[in-house]
Design goal:
Strand content: 15-25%
Order of helices and strands: HEEEHEEHEHHHEHEHEEHHHH
Largest sheet: 6 strands, mixed
Number of domains: 2
Structural class: alpha/beta
CATH architecture of the largest domain: 3-Layer(aba) Sandwich
Number of helices: 12
Oligomer: single chain
Distance between the termini: 19 Å
Length: 297
């Protein structure tokens, strides 16, 4: 049994039970959504623009309140008192897609300090947390740099550091790799793996299907505020009807794998590869052995 399976037998760290929300202009953003976030999981939330992903995240962090249904934190219904919301936001940090919406202090150190200071922590602990967050996100050299002079990628890291300094159990990442070049995307993925290895639960929305497929251990697909599919990445991204109906692209690894299977270049019975390393292993194995011998051990 893998770590996610074990986590699924525990009380989810976050869950939604029949949550609905309509904006004042009449837009039905969430429609009877129920889902669970196991502790220690890596969840990808997928869907086209307007599917409800950002609205969902604003509910998980307590910024929006359900008009119907409820949010649960470790099995406890979320209350919208100041004290409970303070607890919720100390446990669930959100990094918005646009880092400029989160950066407002004069320099990097002050900006990252804002959350811990609002938690009324002693100044020495605030300093320790900020320094750890900067080290994790590799921005220590930017400590005294004005936030207005940062590059877009640097702003992303500072926004993430600001959330990490609060030491939440859950980190929500809304399109964290949008508008970053491939090298910076790879660096971000390394950072996310570091956070996950340290025990944090990560929830990510992304339009990068290659990233979602290789990174997540579970996926939710939203369409018009409704969860229309859920499951392991291997199940979601091999369900062609789900991809077509929700305007999602199949990851290139699966496209190549499918082409190799249909052409008979690799044998049947192989599990879908999750990344290019696994795909290249299949190709190498097929190149040095007859297809009839290319079967799972």
């Amino acid at each position: 049994m893998n770590a996610l399976s074990l986590a699924c037998h525990q009380t989810p760290i976050l869950s939604l039970d029949g949550v609905s929300y309509t904006y004042p202009d009449g837009t039905r953003a969430l429609n009877q959504i129920s889902l669970e976030i196991p502790r220690g999981s890596k969840i990808a939330v997928l869907g086209a623009n307007g599917a409800g992903k950002s609205t969902l995240f604003l509910h998980l962090n307590g910024i929006l309140k359900p008009q119907q249904g409820q949010i649960l934190l470790e099995g406890r219904p979320v209350k919208y008192s100041r004290s409970f919301l303070g607890e919720l936001r100390s446990q669930v940090g959100i990094v918005f897609q646009d880092p400029d919406s989160q950066l407002f202090a004069m320099n990097v150190f002050e900006d990252i300090s804002f959350g811990p200071m609002n938690m009324k922590l002693p100044r020495p602990e605030v300093k320790d947390r900020v320094e750890r967050a900067m080290e994790i996100t590799r921005i220590t050299s930017l400590k005294n740099k004005p936030t207005g002079h940062l590059s877009y990628g640097e702003k992303k890291r500072v926004a993430i550091a600001g959330v990490l300094a609060m030491e939440p159990a859950v980190v929500i990442l809304d399109e964290p790799t949008a508008f970053l070049d491939p090298r910076l995307v790879d660096e971000m993925v390394v950072l996310f793996e570091k956070l996950h290895s340290a025990g944090q639960t990560l929830i990510m929305s992304t339009h990068d299907m290659d990233l979602a497929y290789r990174w997540a251990d579970y996926c939710y697909v939203l369409n018009h505020g409704t969860v229309v599919a859920r499951g392991r990445p291997e199940d979601i991204f091999t369900a062609h009807s789900v991809l077509k109906e929700n305007n999602l692209q199949q990851p290139w690894v699966l496209k190549v794998f499918s082409g190799l299977l249909s052409s008979g270049l690799i044998g049947e019975g192989l599990e879908a590869p999750r990344n290019e390393e696994q795909l290249f292993h299949y190709i190498k194995k097929a190149a040095i052995a007859p297809v009839t011998e290319n079967r799972p051990d």
